[in-house]
Amino acid sequence: MINKIKSQKLGLIAVFIALVIAFGCKENKTPETETPIVSAENLDEEFYRPNYHFTPKANWMNDPNGMFYLNGTYHLYFQYYPDGNVWGPMHWGHATSKDLIIWEEQPIALYPDELGLIFSGSAVVDKQNTSGFGKDGITPVVAIYTYHNMDGEKAGDIDFQTQGIAYSLDEGMTWVKYSDNPVIKNPGIKDFRDPKVIWDSQTNKWIMSLAAGNKIMFYSSENLKDWVFESEFGEDKGEHGGVWECPDLFPMKVENSETTKWVLLVSINPSGPNGGSATQYFIGDFDGHNFVLDKDFDQQLSQSKSIWLDYGRDNYAGVTWSNIPESDGRHLFMGWMSNWDYARDVPTYKWRSTMTIARELQLRKNNNTFNLMSFPVDELNQFADIKLSKISLSSNELNGVLKDLDVDFEKLGLDFTLNGLKNDAYKFVFNNKAGDTLTLGLDNETNELYIDRRHSGKVDFSEKFAPHISKAKLPNSIKELKVQILLDKTSVEVFYNDGEFVMTELFFPNKPFEEFSIISNDDAFIIENFKVREFKFN
Ligand code: FRU
Questions:
Q1: How many Å apart are CA 15 and CA 8, to the nearest integer?
Q2: Which of 149, 246, 341 is the best mutation target for the ligand 1 pocket, counting ligand atoms within 8 Å of the beta carbon and taking the most?
């Protein structure tokens, strides 16, 4: 257990007085020599398996698919290759949860067939049995997904992606494919995929958003089988350095107002804000036929070209749950916690890929600026054991406060607000005795939030994993910053100002982190509502 004030040399001239909070954890009790450092050769398959994020038991996973809620159960399907640990012929894997945190893997839901592999898509609960798939009063759940025909692709065709549907009469456990698939044929667009369907109460129709190369196409249907093209959006808006994928269109109340706006999520690969894949969003209006950008949002876009849901490198292809009861009213989101730049190379072997924590979305508008906020669902709190809670501390007082604290950094929540900030740098540092360091924080001189995983452990499995620091630009320097950090074995999710800025990134330390520090050359800032939480699951 260490508790000390450290000095740190930065460059040749500046000596920073650093405030270090270091608190003991289980690892500290074992003499260092007895703690094995994991090398690629002897990697224990469970060493990197997260404690409270979903991973498949074995093999490859990517995008979340078909998420819906019904009768107390949240369903999560996912792009799954059951025969290998890299991307391969896609199936829909399946997991269920009562609380969005603890997931139980279920048998594979959808297998490839003669029309193709099963790519990403969505699922809806067809309460009015518009599809006619319901029998004996049973409400059908209908999955809408993309068929990717490998033979067509190999033959050099461009129309190898079509849309198909399947239905379930046992609340999503087993599925029957529709006999008349595909329900939407390919109009001659090579990338034509990832249907996300919602019920539109303005027109009493189903609306599908579909990614089509460099734009989103909207279709409508009365029965989920016959689809009519309505309109398209986006060819000249937002980021276009890659292919548009996995859209999601849904209405949302603007916080503290009676105004409803429509949110359009669009994932893009590559050309995310820090490289590789990422998710941008658009705010506008939708009348059942056309999506039109809001004027103020268009103005925002003219200043920054693209606006991102998450500025970290590991939150991709995320969409929202369908059929959340009105009494709940939340918009619940989950993303794939990886990046196409290196997803195949990350150093887990038996299984590959993790989902983000389930998040709630909220839409805020301040001074004509929209912000799609995201933060962890409340359900996570029920698993939190509060190890320490301090209302206010000067940076000097922090020294000593965390003495004797025993906390597991592999399931850690840290919450605090920094107040009285100057135009200085504030680093939040995790480290271990293997010399691994994960640094995040605020540079209030350059107005940037950042994550630096360049020295966080295993990074050389891919040149693209940690070539630089990931950054999110703030509009100006700030006096106050609210921080919520979730740390699981290989992931950090940081929610600033209740989700106004979010950064999600993976890391692969040689041993678990053991120390946390807040480092700055400013020794006058105040730390408010400092809370250390450990998540417990029995
Ligand atoms: C996004 C994506 C989707 C596609 C799926 C294939 O990560 O490329 O566009 O449907 O993955 O697995």
A1: 6
A2: 246
